[in-house]
Write a structure and sequence with these properties.
TIM Barrel; 4-stranded parallel beta sheet; Ado/ade_deaminase; A_deaminase; Adenosine deaminase; 16 helices; adenosine deaminase activity; alpha/beta; 48% helix; hydrolase
Length: 364
């Protein structure tokens, strides 16, 4: 048997695992427009779907995380009702499945969806119902299988992280798999939310932390050493603790060694990292260096609307840039599945019954 040519169309057929994807960063442009009309939201820059799609991407290409985050004002504004949350969650599942994703953890901040009277619990109920509906549609209408769970996010500039952590624990048997903090890093260190993380540890709950994207090693150090995170959201700036020599050898500092030794997964998002200034270009992105140094790297989309991307396109960019083959993509996918906030036996089942057979066909 010969290997399937490695192009974008073929990558779409490969089973993929996504750990870092924001619900409010992945809406269809048409959905944004229709939901805005339904709630009389008149602040969209355009009501043409093609133009709006381009606007989100161009607005996100700022080189600044703070400016990048401003684009979410529009998507969050149209996700304030039970119907809108269910629809966005359902369409998210359908879009991921159509791209070959077999397991995904999609995150969002319930505290940002209360403007029209919903409670935190109602926000969770309707969003999780949307995920369930999407999985059912994919299974019954398309004959595919996908598991989508929710990462419940608290905003790091707010003061509700303990409350949101408790919310996550209340819903963890109903589709909420873990906790996260997100938002601007500078001035809002993870240690501000220690009570939430200590609570989660007492409850044996999983959590990831956005760290090492717009801010450097102190953010990563706090997330790991003080907060005890299971994964690092982005973590790109761990390269600040690695000295590369001209001959390609590397000297790792204490923090970089610890992250690698502990196999703390890095939720790397190549396109988004370029947009926010965490990397100058895909070619300059540290993904390949970290992969070669045996860090547990994973490929992620972050915000599919803002970055105008999919998992397949993120993988293809890495293939084009670094010359990866099918076995490399399989390794990154297994890295992600190993790192998922899913029970061990369920992770193993997806690896053995879906990921490995799927790549075996492509590798030939």
């Amino acid at each position: 048997m010969t290997s399937t040519p490695l192009d974008l169309d073929a990558i779409r057929l490969a089973p993929k695992v996504l750990l870092h994807d924001h619900l409010d960063g992945g809406l269809r442009p048409e959905t944004v427009i229709e939901l805005a009309d339904a709630v009389n939201y008149t602040e969209l820059p355009t009501t043409d779907p093609v133009e709006l799609k381009e606007w989100f991407r161009d607005a996100a290409d700022s080189g600044s995380l703070e400016l990048y985050l401003q684009t979410f004002g529009h998507t969050v504004a149209v996700m304030q009702t039970a119907e809108s949350l269910r629809r966005v969650a359902r369409e998210c599942v359908e879009d991921l499945a159509s791209d070959g994703v077999v397991y995904a953890e999609v995150r969002f901040a319930p505290e940002q969806h209360l403007d029209r009277g919903l409670t935190l619990d109602e926000v969770m109920e309707h969003t999780l119902a949307g995920f369930e509906e999407g999985m059912r549609v994919v299974r019954e209408q398309h004959g595919r299988s996908i598991v989508v769970q929710c990462l419940v996010t608290a905003m790091r500039h707010a003061a509700r992280s303990r409350e949101i952590a408790e919310l996550m624990v209340r819903f963890r048997d109903r589709g909420a798999c873990g906790f996260d903090i997100a938002g601007a890093e500078v001035g809002f260190p993870p240690s501000r939310h220690l009570d939430a993380f200590e609570y989660l540890q007492r409850e044996n709950a999983h959590f990831t932390i956005h760290a090492g994207e717009a801010f450097g090693l102190p953010s990563i150090h706090e997330a790991v050493a003080y907060c005890g995170c299971d994964r690092l959201g982005h973590g790109v700036r761990i390269m600040d603790d690695i000295k590369m020599s001209a001959d390609g050898t590397a000297k790792l500092g204490l923090l970089a060694n610890y992250v690698r030794d502990k196999r703390i997964p890095l939720e790397l998002c190549p396109s988004s990292n370029v947009q926010t200034g965490a990397a100058d270009s895909i070619a300059e992105h540290p993904f390949d260096k970290l992969a070669r140094l045996k860090f547990r790297v994973t490929v992620n989309t972050d915000n599919r609307l803002m970055s105008h991307t999919t998992m397949s396109e993120e993988m293809f960019k890495l293939v084009e840039t670094f010359g990866y083959g099918w076995s490399d993509l399989e390794r990154f996918t297994i890295n992600a599945m190993k790192s998922a906030f899913y029970r061990f036996d369920q992770r193993l089942e997806i690896i053995d019954n879906t990921i490995k057979p799927g790549y075996a066909v492509l590798i030939g």
